[in-house]
Amino acid sequence: MSTLNEVGERDAWRCWLCDEPVDPDASVNSDRGPSVDSGASPKGKKAAAAVQRLAHRSCNTRKGSVKPVVPWSPELFVVEPAPIVTTVERLTRKGGREVVARCPSRAEADKAAAWLVDRLSRFAPELAVATQVEAGGGQFLLVLRAV
Question: I need a surface site. Which of 81, 103, 126, 133 has the fewest CB within 10 A?
Fold first, then answer.
């Protein structure tokens, strides 16, 4: 079992759920204080193999024993975005590709693609992904592919 400082250093003091900075000097009793989430174990693995991740205390508490929700950035113009956690689980398990959102312009799709790869590099660092933008029906589809 790792210490809070070890997990914080490894995760660059960013919450794996909301992707906001975590203050290492904040009280662990504060809502925005650091905590270690030990519940992120891969399916089918024993509890001892659980991955420890850094989270704000409030994010960790809010998640509880239900599947976490990782929001898309409100700065992106995406239509019908796929749930990030479910998409990551499916791509980890099966590989392949998934359409994860639609965008009204190529520029918006490229911006969303760059954001998604960056976000997943912290949320699921073990999953290697690439994005692809495909034109279709007057819109642009954002495709995420396991590599």
Answer: 126
End-to-end alpha-carbon separation of the chain, Å?
A: 31
Beta-strand pair 139-146/34-40:
unpaired
Write out pLDDT tens, residues 93-140: 999 999 999 999 999 999 999 999 999 988 888 899 999 999 988 899
Give me the residue spans of the domains in the chain: 4-63, 84-146
List, for residues 81-103, the tens digit of each pLDDT value: 999 999 999 999 999 999 999 99
Q: Model's pTM, two decimal places?
A: 0.73
Q: What 3-state class would DSSP assign to 17? A: coil
**Burial class for 141, CB neighbours closer than 10 Å (0-12, 13-18, 19+):** middle
Q: What single-letter DSSP state applies at residue 3?
A: -
